[in-house]
Amino acid sequence: MTLDEYAIEYGTDKASTHHNYTAIYERVFSPVRESTKGLLEIGIGGVNYKGVAGSSLRMWASYFSNAQVVGVDIDPSADKDYGDRVSVVIGDQTRRSTLDKALGLLPSVDIIVDDGAHINNLTVATFEYLWPRLRPGGIYVIEDTVCVGELRLGNTRAQTEQLVLTLLRGLEVNGRIMAKGNAADFYKINPDYVLNDYERWVESVELYRGVYVIRKREK
């Protein structure tokens, strides 16, 4: 079955019947479908969720048949049995204790999907903590980015725009490195040069309507 077929079966709003994120995810994840061993999703859906709680966890577990799937949510009502290879951690997505507990349940941190609070400062804080813990070659997804300007959430576009600019600068490698004469080949940069985490590890940044996909370098 395709990812979208699983999404429709389990009732997640990622399906073509709603946001249609599965059209993006099929392209992004199909090459790593068999090799993915661990996926973390922030946001399960609790008592106030209008959709089907845990539906995307079931979708991921069915699609990535060799993976352990862990969901994080702040709402205790989200703590349910969502099937084999699915675990739940209840807690705040910006608490190290919550995230460390979730990461500890995965054999490998291959994919991270943030479908959590959709509050920009929380999204950025979560990314900053989890990015170094994503394995080399892994994929980080920030979902529902159409919310970045919603004032009812306390969001301003500048908060997420700054993160994107930081990632792009890291991707291209900043000016002080370029001035060393290494513009032609990233991999020949002398290890003495001080690279920040994004300069060293960002492989690509893909921006779609509602979804950002950030890939980490293999080495």
Q: What does the main sheet amount to?
A: 7 strands, mixed
- CATH-defined superfamily: Vaccinia Virus protein VP39
Strand content: 15-25%
Query: What's the number of domains?
Result: 1
Structural class: alpha/beta
CATH domain topology: Rossmann fold
Reading side by side through the largest sheet, how are the strands ordered? 3-2-1-4-5-7-6
CATH architecture: 3-Layer(aba) Sandwich
Q: What is the CA-atom radius of gyration, in angstroms?
A: 18 Å
User: Could you say which overall geometry the principal axes of the C-alpha atoms support?
Assistant: globular
Discrete helix count: 8
End-to-end separation: 33 Å
Mean pLDDT over the full residue set: 88
Which assembly state applies to the chains in this document?
single chain
**What is the class in the CATH system?**
Alpha Beta
- E-strand count: 7
The string of secondary-structure elements, in order, is HHEHEEHEHEHHHEE
InterPro entries: SAM-dependent_MTases_sf
GO molecular function, one term: methyltransferase activity
Pfam families: Methyltransf_24
Keywords: Methyltransferase, Plasmid, Transferase
Q: What report would you give on this structure?
A:
The protein is an alpha/beta fold. The protein has one domain (3-216): Rossmann fold, CATH 3.40.50.150. Helix content is 32%, strand content 17%. The protein contains eight helices and seven strands. A hairpin with a 2-residue loop joins strand 6 and strand 7 (211-216). Helix 5 (120-130) packs parallel to helix 6 (157-172). The two termini are 33 Å apart. One of its GO terms (molecular function) is methyltransferase activity. Keywords: Methyltransferase, Plasmid, Transferase. This is Class I SAM-dependent methyltransferase. Pfam families: Methyltransf_24.
